[in-house]
Amino acid sequence: MVLSTVLMLAAGLGTAGPVNAETIPQGGPTATAAVGQEEKDLRTECAAHPEANTRKGWVKSRFETCVHQPVHLKLMDKERRLRGELWFDLWILGFSYDGSRRVDYTSSIENIRTKAVAGENPATWKIEQNFSHTINASASGPNPQMTKPAVTTRSENIAQWTAKPLWQLNYTSPDTGKLDPVNTQVVSGMITLDMRVSSPTAVPWTDPVMAYSSVRFDYAGPTAGKYKGTVFTEARVELVMSLKDPAVDQSARHILDAQQLPERTFPSWAGKTVPGATEPLHRLIDKDKQEKNREKAIATCNDVWGDYKGTTLQCDEYPFASTKEGAAAPGDRFSARLIDGTDNETGGRKLNEMFTLNRILDGDAFYVKITP
Fold it and tell me: What is the pLDDT of residues 135-149, one digit of tens each?
C-alpha cells in the first residue's frame, strides 16, 4: 500500500473554512538528518526504489532494509472542519548483522511542513512514534526471547522533531553462548511502528502499522557462516551465475536450460517444469537426503550418457542436491547433465558461499538467476 496519498485525521473531508495561504516549512524542503556514511549510502539507494514507499519498505538484502514514505495529513475536527495540513517524510533505516543477534533501526521525521486555518497553531501539534515487537513462537526455537530498547516511544511537537529529526533503537536476542546442533536458537519476530498525530482542536489520527520489519535471530553455527547472526527474512536471496563466466559457464547453461527449456533436459517428460527462477528453492541440510538426491541424479546421467568413469566429467544436478527440490523429491522436476568436473565443483562452491553470506538455514528460500 503506497502511503504518499492523502491520509485524513477524520473520515470524509467536508466543507471547511479557508486555509491560511502561508505554508510554514519546518527545517526546509532539503533538510536531512545527520547520519553516518553507511546510512547515507542506504538512503541514496532507497530513494530510487518505489518499494520503499510501502509498509514493508525496500528490503535490500538480508542485512539492510529501508522505508521512505512521503506523508500528507489533513487535520479535521469533530465536525469535519479542516484545521490544517501536515507534510513530512518518514525514514526508517534497518541494519541486521552476520555475527551478532542484534538489529538496529534509525527512524526520522524530516522535511516537516504545515498549513493552518486562521486561529490554529501548528506549534501545538504532536507527532508520536511507538515501536513494538512480537515473536512468532511457531517459527522459533524453545523459549524465544527478544530484548527491546530502553525507549520505544517518542512523542514531541514539530519544533522538537525539527531540532532532532532522528532517533535510534536496537533489538537483541539472548543466547546460551554455545552451539547446540539440536537447537539453533532461532527467534522469529516482527518489529512494528505505529504512529499518531494529535492537535488540541482535531481528532487524532493513528496508523497501527505504519511500517514493519520481519527479523530472525539464530545461533546456527558454521552451516550459516558466522556462528550467530540476524537477518531480515523478507529479503529476496539469489544465486547469480553468468554464461560469460568461464569458471561456471557449463553450470550456468545447464541451469538456464532447465529453467527455460525443461522438456529438453533429462529426465524428459511432457509438461515438465523445474523450479528456481520464479518458484523458490529451499536449502536442505540433511546429508543423507542430499546423498539420495545425488544418487538419483547420477542414475539419470548413467542412463542417458553411459559410464563416464575415468573422464573429467561429473554429473551436475539442478535443483541442487542441497535443496529440498533435489532429484529425489517427488515429481521428477529436476535435470541431470554431464559437465566439466572443475566447472561443477566451482558452481558448488559458489552455492555454499551464497548460503553462508546470507545466513541461509535449513528450509530457507532462495532463487537462481542466470545472466547473459
Answer: 999 999 999 999 999
